[in-house]
Specification:
Chain lengths: ~190, ~550
């Protein structure tokens, strides 16, 4: 499951010494927040697209779509890494939808509960995400799709960390099948 | 550039075979392919980026960058769509075309499939028509395809197939768990289940080993090269003759004609984007239904102001694919065995013969499901998100079976490919514009098929089912696209003759699914291959060195 360098060309060149001012401020002000929500992009310690606030809001929405039980929630399994990584690659065309959708979700939360979405109780988050799914169906469906893809898709893209959803479904990983089960010396009719 | 006998545009199911047949017959051939040449090493088992699940793009082309199309919906609104989006109706762009990554069901059409109008009459508003050739004409070439490409399977369980002279060259793969659940149920219903014919090695064949039965099959390049496409069968043979040169990442832009209206070659953009001309004695267009039509329509000249072969406004019409419907069954025991390719059992009892319906289609169990395929195939009452959805994934992923099939579409003249007047691709060429739909009777047939799938699942013990039936908003062309350069005897209502030669230009051929008059109730690849052998044989027979016998 090595990431293919063609797939994630920015993995090696990303950020490090090239933080934008906004990201620099965000990283300084909110250092450690990524760790707090359990979904930082690991060794690089920052997001490629999302601000820390956007990441916290998105994590709350994703974790309503796939909450934790005996198995990890969406964000615990790396779904934010999946979405963030693709927002500067294959999902570039959805950048505006994410910016405005997350802003709207946050505004709804502050208006209704007077708090940021990620600080609400589970029940309040559920109610808010339910409202979001009605008021901005397009954005919610986008996030729902990306969350389920990230969680149940291939671990190579950052979600489904350690193939955790496949293990949850009882699918052996790595799969046990292989050449060994066949006798390749048997004759061919041709 | 040295003049050659033939330029073949497109190295897919048909183009690979044509190149091989011509090269073996001694013609010099240049085979142009807009995509790359992938191999078994390019199987990356990526659930999100393959040819079937394309949320992160197409693994085997075309790329989302620079290859747009336009879809004009029923209200006339135009949408620019990307290759990884469903409404693009994509077929892979690479050496092997769709056959590199397909599921590899290798069906013969039934004799009735070539005589749809005679069998049923044409529903009003449809363009249902008979083929100018029949099953018997193609039978030897079906057989040739089965042996040269390599097909496994066993037809002995069903009386519903055309006459055949030889059995398939390979036995079927050992049955999976779904086969053992579905076979007795089908028999109890009086149906005739049997092993799906597959272009997949079940035993060593053609110098390659058998299927290792992994989970990543339909939509992926085979990791052990046990899936048979043109890229690992006929194209290597063509290259080994020394008569065929394959040029990859070369995008044909126009068929060049002389002042007498004969083709003199093909212009194309090479891998570095430079415009080249390859002169030739004849041109074969094998770019798949949408792209072949586009190349003809883009080949405008003084003598062909509306595009080559389009004097009677027929190029691009009668676009069709298949209307897929079926059902998901949910069981109180495990049905999943983690053994690929998954699709193993089919019935062809319902392809024809239902009073009131113009045809039908084959029904088969679905390819092995990756978890990503289940997220929207859960029981109807399942919440769409939250713990309920997560629990349902756990409950049903290993306890469900999908049966579905390709309902034969009833074509219309309005379901078509034209050129978009404004949108261009990265080479500056006008792109495909898709519009229209198939005849609505198609959806009535599809609904009946879905209920039949459901009945089969219930008989097999399903405790719950959900129907997969819908009315499509556009022609579902996709990987089964066909019908844009109809084969026929009348130049006013068709584009090519029975040998796939364009009526109005005697050295240009269209040899691919474009020529299908109707598209059967089956995956079309073996018919595409059989027609490629059939048309190549006629081409070689009539070839006399630098031109054709008249």
């Amino acid at each position: 499951m090595e990431p293919d360098p063609r797939e994630i060309p920015m993995l090696t060149s990303r950020k490090a010494g090239h933080l934008t001012r906004r990201q620099f401020v965000a990283a300084g002000a909110l250092g450690g927040a990524a760790i707090a929500v359990g979904c930082g992009s690991g060794k690089h310690g920052n997001w490629e697209f999302l601000s820390e606030e956007q990441a916290r809001t998105l994590a709350a929405i994703c974790d309503q779509i796939i909450p934790a039980d005996d198995f990890p929630s969406a964000s615990q399994a790396g779904v934010l890494t999946y979405i963030d990584r693709q927002l500067v690659r294959h999902f570039r065309r959805f950048q505006d939808a994410y910016r405005s959708g997350l802003e709207q979700a946050q505004a709804m939360s502050r208006k209704r509960f007077g708090q940021d979405l990620d600080l609400l109780s589970q029940q309040q988050q559920f109610e808010l995400v339910s409202s979001l799914s009605e008021q901005n169906r397009e954005f919610f469906e986008l996030v729902r799709g990306h969350t389920l893809e990230g969680y149940y898709g291939s671990p190579r893209h950052g979600g489904n960390r350690d193939a955790v959803s496949w293990r949850m479904l009882g699918l052996p990983e790595p799969p046990p099948l292989g050449r060994a089960q066949y006798d390749l010396r048997k004759g061919s009719p041709s | 550039m040295k003049r050659v006998n033939a330029v073949v545009v497109g190295a897919g199911a048909a183009g690979g075979i044509v190149a091989k047949e011509l090269a073996v017959a001694g013609l010099s051939v240049v085979l142009l392919e807009r995509g790359k040449w992938y191999t078994a090493y390019d199987c990356r088992k990526d659930d999100l980026r393959n040819q079937r699940t394309t949320v992160l793009g197409n693994a085997f082309g075309p790329d989302d960058e620079g290859n747009p199309r336009v879809w004009a919906d029923a209200g006339g609104a135009a949408h620019t769509v990307l290759p990884s989006e469903g409404s693009y109706q994509n077929d892979a762009a690479c050496v092997g075309g769709g056959t590199l990554s397909y599921g590899a069901q290798a069906w013969r059409y039934l004799p009735q499939d070539f005589r749809m109008r005679s069998t049923y009459g044409a529903p009003e508003g449809s363009s249902l028509e008979d083929w100018p050739i029949g099953y018997d004409d193609l039978e030897p070439f079906y057989e040739k395809a089965e042996y040269e490409i390599g097909i496994s399977g066993d037809y002995s369980g069903t009386p519903f197939h055309g006459p055949r002279k030889r059995p398939l060259p390979m036995p079927p793969l050992p049955p999976g768990r779904e086969f053992s659940i579905l076979e007795p149920a089908a028999k109890r219903l009086g149906l005739h289940p049997f092993h799906i014919p597959m272009a997949r090695n079940s035993v060593p064949y053609n110098g390659r080993g058998p299927c290792m039965r992994c989970r990543w099959c339909c939509g992926f390049a085979c990791e052990v090269d046990a899936k048979n496409g043109s890229q690992n069968t006929v194209i290597p043979v063509a290259l080994n003759t020394g008569n065929c040169e394959l040029r990859t990442e070369c995008m044909a832009s126009e068929i060049l004609t002389d002042e007498r209206g004969r083709a003199r070659g093909v212009s194309y953009f090479d891998a570095r984007g430079r415009l080249q001309e390859q002169l030739s004695d004849l041109v074969v267009v094998s770019g798949c239904a949408t792209e072949s039509a586009r190349l003809l329509l883009n080949s405008k000249s003084r003598l062909f102001p509306e595009g080559l072969g389009n004097r009677h406004d027929q190029v691009g019409r009668h676009l069709q694919g298949h209307h897929y419907t079926g059902a998901v069954g949910y069981f109180d025991f495990e049905t999943y065995d983690d053994v690929g390719p998954g699709a193993t059992i089919a019935i062809t009892d319902y392809n024809h013969g239902t009073p009131g319906l113009c045809g039908g289609g084959m029904l088969a169990n679905e390819f092995i499901r990756l978890p990503i395929h289940m997220i929207d195939r859960l029981p109807a009452k399942t919440p769409r998100w939250g713990l309920g959805h997560k629990q349902a994934m756990r409950d049903w992923h290993k306890r469900s079976i999908v049966i579905m099939g390709p309902t034969q579409q009833i074509p219309t003249a309005e379901g078509r490919v034209t050129l978009d007047p404004t949108v261009r691709d990265k080479w500056g060429l006008p792109v495909v514009r898709l519009s229209g739909n198939v005849h609505p009777h198609t959806f009535e047939i599809g609904e009946v098929q879905a209920k039949r799938a459901e009945a089969w699942l219930k008989e097999a013990g399903a405790i719950d089912t959900s129907l997969m039936s819908y009315k499509a908003e556009m022609v579902s062309a996709g990987q089964h696209q066909a019908g844009t350069c109809r084969m026929g005897n009348d130049p006013r209502s068709s584009v090519v003759d029975r040998n796939c030669r364009i009526h109005e230009v005697d050295n240009v051929f269209v040899i691919d699914s474009s020529v299908h008059v109707t598209n059967g109730g089956f995956n079309p690849v073996l018919t595409i291959m059989a027609i490629a052998y059939f048309a190549s044989e006629a081409l070689v027979r009539n070839w006399k060195g630098t031109g054709f016998r008249s």
